[in-house]
């Protein structure tokens, strides 16, 4: 973070106007993390809140525990220049295609094979899974989630979790 390799943002969820005023937060609003410090065994974060360019609402510190209580999400946006090589795959998948709960079958879920050719000693691989939300209501209520499970199968399709 302090090297400038990652941009951290966080966002509040739905809350009443009373709650927002009580905590000094805007409901369903994004905040940029400007600094992170350890202070007497507490992690503190600095946020810049700009509602619009003409309205500067302030910079404030918040403890990690309070961040976890009052914010719904944290986003980490990594500098792509950190990676010597990269590949990007864009795909779509409607959650209604697969089972509602994939604890029983993975047959209809998207599956990808990752093959890494690297020098002796191994390599580090980062995989970014990103869900593009196009429905504001879905964003507010997080009705659908995505996840990734890694299996070592020599490229064979996985039908059942395990």
TrEMBL record:
Stretches that traverse the bilayer: 42-64
Example GO BP: proteolysis
Superkingdom field: Eukaryota
MF-aspect GO terms: cysteine-type endopeptidase activity
Alphabetic keyword roster: Hydrolase, Membrane, Protease, Thiol protease, Transmembrane, Transmembrane helix
Name this protein carries in UniProt: Calpain catalytic domain-containing protein
Source species: Callipepla squamata
């Amino acid at each position: 973070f302090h090297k400038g390799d990652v941009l951290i943002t966080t966002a509040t969820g739905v809350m009443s106007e009373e709650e927002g005023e009580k905590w000094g937060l805007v409901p369903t609003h994004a905040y940029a993390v400007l600094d992170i410090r350890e202070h007497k065994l507490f992690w503190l974060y600095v946020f810049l809140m700009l509602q619009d360019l003409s309205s500067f609402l302030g910079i404030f510190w918040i403890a990690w525990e309070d961040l976890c209580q009052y914010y719904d999400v944290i986003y980490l946006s990594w500098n792509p220049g950190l990676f010597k090589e990269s590949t990007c795959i864009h795909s779509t998948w409607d959650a209604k295609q697969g089972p509602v709960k994939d604890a029983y079958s993975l047959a209809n879920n998207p599956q990808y094979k990752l093959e890494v050719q690297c020098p002796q000693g191994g390599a580090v691989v980062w995989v970014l899974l990103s869900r593009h939300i196009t429905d504001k209501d879905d964003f507010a209520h997080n009705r659908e989630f995505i996840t990734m499970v890694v299996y070592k199968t020599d490229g064979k399709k996985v039908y059942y979790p395990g």
